[in-house]
Amino acid sequence: MRKISRRLTAGAAAFGVLLTSAVVTTTQAEATHKPGTRSLATVLASDGDTFDRNWNDYDVLTQAVGAVLAAKPNSPVKVLADGKVALTAFLPSDRAFQLLAKDLTGKWYKSESQLFSGLAGLLGVDTIEAVLLYHVVPGATIDSRTALKSDGAKLTTALPGGTLKVDVLSKRFRLIRLIDADRNDADPLLNPWALDINKGNKQIAHGIWLVLRPLDI
């Protein structure tokens, strides 16, 4: 785990301010529409930013972002709070983190607070930071309609060297898989009922059912 952390930390340190270009197909009407600047951090904190019994929201993720910024105020993760910067984020649910912890430790945490504490102690702030950056595609506002037309597209993430591949399984049922760097575990699907979070703004997000892994962990 220390070796993994060192590799991820090295990548995060090299990040700087990365705003990669992305090919996003838009209609003429969309091109003339000025997107809003509400940040994803504002959206994530809108439910009170507290642990609860709802495993389908994003409390663990929100707390992870807060913990990273508390320890490293200048972390590139802070881009999530800057609504003027275009990006697309993939948001693992609390259940996704519960499944990650089960895979890494064999323990099934029954409360979100215990889950967060367990993962924080296991991974450390630098690895958590790198994992968060792997869930962000900077420089592009990719809505679900665009994603469904992007089968086979390669996305460059905010983690240096990190890439994801878009695998459209069904346009009809809006099923999209993201293929990450970990070949030993299942790849996450986008949640069809949690697409286009914060739509109409420069920062957009889609819920996912598993945590993306930047390395074989």
TrEMBL record:
Top-rank lineage group of the source organism: Bacteria
Keyword check for Signal: yes
Gene3D superfamilies: FAS1 domain (2.30.180.10)
InterPro entries: FAS1_dom_sf, FAS1_domain
Keyword set, alphabetical order: Signal
Domain FAS1: start-end pairs: 77-173
Signal peptide bounds: 1-29
Protein name: FAS1 domain-containing protein
